[in-house]
Design a protein that fits this description.
- By secondary structure, this protein is an alpha+beta fold.
- The protein has three helices and four strands.
- It has helices at residues 11-18, 28-32, 41-54, and strands at residues 58-63, 66-75, 83-92, 98-105.
- It has a four-stranded antiparallel β-sheet with strand order 1-2-3-4, with helices on one face.
Length: 107
Amino acid sequence: MRIPPNAIIPQAKLDQYLLIWRERDDKSKFLAQAGYGLETVEELELAIRRIIAENDAVEEGTDQYGRRYRVVGTLYGLNGVDLGVVTIWIERTDQGIFQFLTLYPHR
């Protein structure tokens, strides 16, 4: 199964979480390796959407908020450095919509 192309990727998840340095669980340094920063938020969103267009989702489980999925793929870098990533999505039970939750390096 594929995450639908109209899945929600909250702007705040990108520019207030993934691309901001955090003392704990920082992802901004990882994404910077591929040329992503606060000035390239739109490009990061497109790169994440490309991952769900090219790769199947695997169900990870269900909780009171909905069904969670994992999509593993390549985040193509703006500077030619590509990163293997795992993206996490939720299909919200109450709304029937898919929403991006996070990403992290694929090891």
